[in-house]
Amino acid sequence: MSAPSKIVIASRESRLAMWQAVHVRDRLSSLNSGSEVVILGMTTKGDQILDRPLAEIGGKGLFIKELEVAMQEGRAHLAVHSMKDVPMVMPEGFVLAAISARENPRDAFVSNNYAGLDELPAGAVVGTSSLRREAILRARYPQLTIKSLRGNLDTRLKKLDAGEYDAIILAAAGLIRLGMENRIKAVLTAEQSLPAPGQGALGIELVDGDAAMAAVVAPLNDPETAHCVKAERALSRALGGSCQVPLGGYAIIDNGQLWLRGFVASVDGQRMVSGEVRGNPADDEALGLQLADQLRAQGAEAILASLACH
Ligand SMILES: NCc1[nH]cc(CCC(=O)O)c1CC(=O)O
């Protein structure tokens, strides 16, 4: 099966989404000399509604719906996503065909006045839009004030620079991709801030059954990253479904074994259960489910029951 003469990538128009689309475009171009690879930029609901927390307006799916419609209507062949933003249950008719090698998966501390979380004085205002980061901060630094922070990366940094926050927490990957690594004051370790499922990895979404395009994107799949992200997503799916849940899930391949760590917390950080499993990378999703069971046995259910969506 040969690649079509023109391959269209649907992408959001934020700088980060465009960087990711360009990255995939360039890789596909060099692998398919006979194809022209182009990007179709579009704005999504998630990009437009910036004044309300993501958890309130409908969650992750908001950022990818328009891209899926474009694929369904044949205006685009594929979409590139930050795996962190892809809903745990893929919408009917779409598949994740490739997961590429991970950028730094950790959270970053960004501030103009402070070198790290431990330097912040009581009452300092820290911005984050993720329930996971909020729960971690409230548990470890109850003296800080957590304030919601929405918008794309540039918007978030502008709000920090305008003095609305003393510090913000962002994914290191986004800053690195956009050449703003110098804004990172400290990278938080997995022990300090266990990353979100999929953080730092890119996924390629296709219409289910598009065998020609699946063959085109297959070389972009990084098997180790794919196993890790599948384990993380299985954990998240088993515990949170498509709800917004303060949950971390992070896997690496360690000595040939997949090592998955995870936690579930209440948003106020008062309750938290965490655990880890190790096993064969090929058992990725089973390992995710195993850790979910372990966390349930420790009381994850009661924490989840207290969240809005359960
Ligand atoms: N929620 C938005 C989002 N989606 C992916 C990234 C960063 C890049 C990545 O995780 O691959 C970010 C920004 C952030 O959390 O700071």
UniProtKB/TrEMBL annotation:
Query: Which pathway does the UniProt entry assign to this protein?
Result: Porphyrin-containing compound metabolism; protoporphyrin-IX biosynthesis; coproporphyrinogen-III from 5-aminolevulinate: step 2/4
The chemistry this enzyme catalyses reads: 4 porphobilinogen + H2O = hydroxymethylbilane + 4 NH4(+)
User: Do you know which CDD domains this protein is assigned to?
Assistant: PBP2_EcHMBS_like
Q: What class of enzyme is it?
A: transferase
- Which note does the record give on the cofactor? Binds 1 dipyrromethane group covalently.
* Entry's Gene Ontology BP terms: protoporphyrinogen IX biosynthetic process
Entry's Gene Ontology cellular component terms: cytoplasm
- Write down which residues bear the modification named S-(dipyrrolylmethanemethyl)cysteine: 243
Q: What is its EC number?
A: 2.5.1.61
- A single Pfam family it belongs to is Porphobil_deamC
Q: Where is the Porphobilinogen deaminase N-terminal domain?
A: 7-213
**Cited function:** Tetrapolymerization of the monopyrrole PBG into the hydroxymethylbilane pre-uroporphyrinogen in several discrete steps.
Further remarks about this protein from its record: The porphobilinogen subunits are added to the dipyrromethane group.
Q: Which family does it belong to?
A: Belongs to the HMBS family.
NCBIfam families named among the record's database cross-references: hemC
Protein name, UniProt field: Porphobilinogen deaminase
Query: What is the species of this protein?
Result: Azonexus fungiphilus
What gene, per UniProt, encodes this protein? Answer: hemC
